[in-house]
Known about the structure:
There is one protein chain. The protein has 327 residues and is of the alpha+beta class. The chain has 3 domains: 1-32; 39-191, Helix Hairpins (Orthogonal Bundle); 213-324, endopeptidase domain like (from Nostoc punctiforme) (endopeptidase fold (from Nostoc punctiforme), Alpha-Beta Complex), CATH 3.90.1720.10. The protein contains 8 helices and 6 strands, in the order H-H-H-H-H-H-H-H-E-E-E-E-E-E. It has a 6-stranded antiparallel β-sheet with strand order 1-6-2-3-4-5. A hairpin with a 2-residue loop joins strand 3 (289-295) and strand 4. The longest helix has 75 residues, at 117-191.
Amino acid sequence: MPARTYRSLSAALAFVMIAVVVVVLPGTRALADPTVAEIEAQIQKLWGEAEPLIEEYNGVHEQYKKNLAKQAALLKKIEPLQRQIDLAQLRVGVIAAEVYKGGQANAFNAVVSSGSPQELAEQLAMLDQIAREQQRQLQDVTDMKAAYDAQKAPIDALVATLKTQDADLAAKKKSIEARLTELQKLRRQAYGTTGTTGSYRPWPCPASYEPTKAYKAASFACKQAGKPYVWAAAGPSSYDCSGLTLASWRQVGVYLPHQSRSQRASTPYVSRANLRLGDLVFYYNPIHHVAIYVGNGKVMHAPSFGDRVRMADMDQAGPIHSYGRPG
């Protein structure tokens, strides 16, 4: 091979090898592991999609449970009607058997056994009365069944609809939660097992003492610091955002629905200037996060999947929508 050709070929091969090294080099941007900031950005983006869905699920699921209870109460209420229907249907069965066995023979027997036209007339009148009574009983059964169905049908339809919605939302949440689990693994890879978040309650909590139910609610929330976020949970070992506020106020006998948007609808508005311990702070528009105010500009909240109940600066927990006061 001529020396010039050999040198040209060698140069070409060297160029190809350099290109290959550049492509497969571990430090290149194309194959680099995601940075902590990139992982957090992925988690934040996906959580922004997941939390509204979870809160929607909480609302639908709570309505589903309420309507199941209504259905059970209605069934109990109309049990006497059901028993009347059962008895009436038994009577109808007896009537049907008599008609089947007797047919027109009853009228014929009345004619051949009558001793006189008057007796015949009386017997035919009696048969006619029996027939009318049987007809009335049949109509009573029809009317009772219609009344029963009319009372039961709307709640059955509502429960069926909510059951479908409940299952649909649960399926969607399961898919998102699987993705969040994968992102949480990346987060552990980035931060290690110890984490970098520090104490879950680094400031006095609540900030001050007050002899009120609201203080007790806020104090309960403070004591949940460090417990894991679990969607649709309302304690005692784990919480989601509205589950934490629900459980906190439940300790003092105040009911809140298990959904941030419904909690907003069920509590009077208060201004930021008039915030007190135990007030609720609602985030985002539309609302899909809620926290409980514990004083000095701080809240306790269950932030997101993979995190734990913690204190936070009120203004750093998300864009504030409004404030509410249970009680």
